[in-house]
């Protein structure tokens, strides 16, 4: 780690203002404003994008701030990041601490330690995370979710009135399986929920719940089957 | 050779770990992606694991996680699967029952009795393999030499591909071959396959004993 830090002073900076394309590579910082493409993989310490950009390769960055529309054609590795707007990742996404506000899509698996998201998301693979806080404003989907702690809430509608691009579906979370230690769900539809302490809130439709220590169920939640497992 | 599988639910019951821990270890690369085997069952899709590997691995993690951080542990476990950067002295190999004295005396890199001799992983691994086969009574000490030679020669060429080691006999002559899996081999009638071992499984076992 120290080696790369020493080197980072020598690394070039990439700056785009306006409409421009650039090559990939290893940079200290990347500053993008406007519209453009990066033709290849980018590795950088700090990545900031403002506007509409495409990365035609993998994206790796320790810090990332992104506003607008960003599409990554490869895998993304972002240690710390805050994203506003639309984010599409064609490969896998992994990171330590991410905040995403808006609509985001990941085509493969997603591995994040801590994450907070408001808006809507579509994950075609597994969402594997430590602590997740989800505030739903649109239909969100993940094929599987495996976490330590998960909290799902519906956002009040007034807060998001300005943003019309969010799919006008019922704000809810859909997944085939949700597994985790502490699950606190609202407006969630799944086949199976397996956890230690599970709380099923209003708006949930769940095929089967398997829990170890505790199950709290809201009267308005629909649960097909309940099962206490283990000791 | 079918591996015995264990479902995720059974695994958590046996080991007493939680879903959160399992997913956390997966994120930290303590449990390789390939071990998560998806199969559809009558209750929908379920995840299975190779039983011996996963139980061994979880045992290692649970025992070591107090001494080492998860990241340190991940580093040790995730080194290239067939060529981990590990060393052990002859004494350690004996004490930890990785290699028996007979094998070490015969095929060790230094004359018998030197407990301080340092073995790298590629040097100690063939000894472990012979030891396993000898203990099972499948080969003789003489034939062990053939194995050591083959493994030493072919080891660098394997490039961490999953491989099986086959040991077979025909009309009293013994021979061994390394094949990358999955592969099916068909011999003539006179050939008797004495042993077929997965090198990946064996390296996992040795790593488990060394950490």
Concise synopsis of the structure shown:
Helix content of chain A is 3%, strand content 74%. Chain A contains 1 helix and 10 strands. Chain A is elongated, with a radius of gyration of 19 Å.
Structural notes for this entry:
Chain B: Pfam families: DUF4004 (PF13171). Chain B: This is DUF4004 family protein. The complex is a heterodimer of chains A (231) and B (211). Chain A has one helix and ten strands; from the N terminus they run αββββββββββ. Chain A has 231 residues and is mainly beta. In chain A, strands 1-2-3-4-5-6-7-8-9-10 form a ten-stranded parallel sheet, with no helix packed on it. In chain A, 41% of the residues are buried. By secondary structure, chain B is of the alpha+beta class. Chain B folds into two domains: 5-78, Multidrug-efflux Transporter Regulator, Chain: A, Domain 2; 87-210, no CATH class. Chain B is built from nine helices and eight strands. Chain B has helices spanning 8-15, 19-27, 51-64, 70-78, 90-95, 101-107, 121-135, 141-158, 199-210; strands at residues 5-7, 37-41, 44-50, 87-89, 118-120, 163-170, 173-180, 191-198. A three-stranded antiparallel sheet of chain B has the order 1-3-2. In chain B, strands 7-6-8 form a three-stranded antiparallel sheet. Chain B has a two-stranded antiparallel sheet with strand order 4-5. In chain B, strand 6 and strand 7 (173-180) form a beta hairpin. Chain B is globular, with a radius of gyration of 19 Å. Classes of the chains: A mainly beta (231), B alpha+beta (211). Chains A and B meet through strand 5, strand 6, strand 7 and strand 8 of A and helix 1 and helix 2 of B.
List keywords for this structure.
heterodimer, A: 231 residues, mainly beta, ten-stranded parallel sheet, 1 helix, 3% helix, disordered N terminus, B: alpha+beta, Multidrug-efflux Transporter Regulator, Chain: A, Domain 2, 2 domains, three-stranded antiparallel sheet, 21% strand, DUF4004 (chain B), DUF4004 family protein (chain B)
